[in-house]
Amino acid sequence: MAFVSGFQRLLRHSHSHFTSIRFNSTLTSPKLFVSGLSRLTTDEKLTEAFSPFGQLMEAKVIIDRASGRSKGFAFVSYATVEEAEKAREGMNAKFLDGWVIFVDPAKPREPRPPPQAESQAPQTGFTVNKTVGWCG
């Protein structure tokens, strides 16, 4: 129990240090990137936590396709940049579902490189199986 209270005291005193490090960039869009989420955080819990700061357009926890579980981050969009800035100031380095979350400006999605075309098939009539591993 002493460890928990000591940890909370440390977070309280270093909160301003964390926020000063993470507030060095300004918002240019009303979309925020939220990291450090618990695997139990849902879209509904995210909406509930971020709705007091303005008109929420979208709150989406990113889910892993294979496992169906949260990847631990989300995107939140507001109607205006001012509302997004209020949410960023109000929710950065706060607890949500028992985890400390961080709220940063969302970066635009980088375009993916086009898929590489397969090399020409050999003229010998044989094809190459690119699967590597042991079968048996």
What would the keywords be for this entry?
five-stranded antiparallel β-sheet; Nucleotide-bd_a/b_plait_sf; RBD_domain_sf; 3 helices; alpha+beta; 29% helix; Alpha-Beta Plaits; 5 strands; 136 residues
General description of the model:
The longest helix is centred in the first third of the chain and has 21 residues, at 2-22. The protein has a domain at 29-105: Alpha-Beta Plaits, CATH 3.30.70. 29% of the residues lie in helices and 24% in strands. The protein is α+β, with helices and mostly antiparallel strands.
Which SSEs are present, and which pair or pack?
Elements: H1 2-22, E1 31-35, H2 43-50, E2 56-63, E3 70-78, H3 81-91, E4 94-96, E5 99-105
Antiparallel strand pairs: 1-3, 1-5, 2-3, 4-5
Q: What is shown here, in short?
A:
The protein is α+β, with helices and mostly antiparallel strands and 136 residues long. It has helices at 2-22, 43-50, 81-91, and strands at 31-35, 56-63, 70-78, 94-96, 99-105.
Total strands: the figure is 5
The CATH architecture of one domain comes to 2-Layer Sandwich
CATH class of one domain: Alpha Beta
> Order of SSEs, N→C?
HEHEEHEE
Task: Give the radius of gyration.
Answer: 22 Å
The protein's oligomeric status is: single chain
Q: Sheet with the most strands?
A: 5 strands, antiparallel
Class from helix and strand fractions = alpha+beta
The CATH superfamily label of one domain reads: RRM (RNA recognition motif) domain
Helix content: 25-40%
Q: What would the average pLDDT be, to the nearest integer?
A: 82
Count of individual helical segments: 3
Shape estimate: elongated
Across the major sheet, the strand order is 2-3-1-5-4
Distance between the termini: 53 Å
Uncertain segments are: 14-23
Proportion of beta-strand residues: 15-25%
CATH topology of one domain: Alpha-Beta Plaits
